[in-house]
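TEACHING EXERCISE
Course module: macromolecular assemblies
Task: Read the component lines below, then compare them to the predicted structure of the full complex.
Student: A.B.
Group: 4
Components provided:
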Amino acid sequence: QVLLVQSGAEVKKPGASVRVSCKASGYTFTSYALHWVRQAPGQRLEWMGWINGGNGNTKHSEKFQGRVTITRDKSASAAYMELSSLRSEDTAVYYCVRVVNSVMDVWGQGTTVTVSS
Amino acid sequence: DIQVTQSPASLSASVGDRVTITCRTSQSITKYLNWFQQKPGKVPELLIYEASNLQSGVPSRFSGSGSGTDFTLTISSLQPEDFATYYCLQSYSTLWTFGQGTKVEIK
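Instructor-supplied answer key:
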């Protein structure tokens, strides 16, 4: 059974950074990409970026240029999304999602990040 | 980035109605358009991939069509459990984009 288990909720102050982890199980981690999606309260889904589980190559939305870093640890079958210079608008639920042949087929449970002074 | 325009933003419909939601992209994405359903507080669920392929386990009243820049999600006979928000997602380019979402409400 394919599972993506994310780290717990975070509360951060404006200007800080947050790192969300996503641990994969039930499949060969290096065979597929993991994408990151977020959703602010009452707002639309927003695609953030992705990482190739095998070679570690990444791409991210231009909206997050310079603020987002996506990494992976093959030995731990885990991916990480770090967002820096946090502001209130970054308050959202952050999801990791497995992608197979351009299809988002398995989602993590989501991690709530709250940015508040 | 490829822009995705989804319409309408919301609609009211009755059980049994036929419902259509559209997505238009700023350039051709061939067949790489996916549809998701999301209920409040829940993780999105994949309905349709590659424009017209029904994900395993999804009821056959859901269907997708289109190619190039214009795509449609159709629910042939709306059921009570279908009241939710629907999103399209283009997965053609290296940078993906969701539509704005369509909230389907009870009339």
